[in-house]
Give the backbone structure.
Amino acid sequence: DAGITQSPRHKVTETGTPVTLRCHQTENHRYMYWYRQDPGHGLRLIHYSYGVKDTDKGEVSDGYSVSRSKTEDFLLTLESATSSQTSVYFCAISDKGFSSGANVLTFGAGSRLTVL
Amino acid sequence: AQSVTQLGSHVSVSEGALVLLRCNYSSSVPPYLFWYVQYPNQGLQLLLKYTTGATLVKGINGFEAEFKKSETSFHLTKPSAHMSDAAEYFCAVSDQAGTALIFGKGTTLSVSS
């Protein structure tokens, strides 16, 4: 987890409230990702960023938005949390994409979100 | 579209036994393939990756995987299981655009003494 910090690590909130998860990296990597992990589903990509203010949707982006105003920070926002968004959220970083070689993702420790 | 299928959500072995975790992939372009491991309450760590070239890839902690294009497989093996290998293992493939990884649903490995 060196170089990647997720906050908060644990959060309990109520349905309908906004929630923001933060991912901070010190590696100066170009790519940042948000995945969610759920039993029986593995990891699914929510959104990713390929540079400051450059973001794109992943497989399960509905109900989520992201922002990246600085290279080191990637924020995931749930505008109005629902119980189906109870999950463990992982941030990952990569210095380049995968089109020119087998780059790797480095993961943070995760943020466990419970929506009551 | 790219995808991976991990056969068996749970695998149990005895300490010292062979570990075999199965992964099949679907890819419309030459794939880059990965195995990650997740220990309880931790993030994911890279075990090994396949690029091009040698089809037998060696990773950390004695694990290895063989890329078999004809079988579209990338199975993970370890000759002798150790108690510390108990974890969840994920196979992943790079997506068609080359921007992200697509993960399988994971296989939980249990090791008994």
Notes: The longest strand of chain B covers residues 19-26. Residues 56 and 88 of chain B are 22 Å apart (CA to CA).
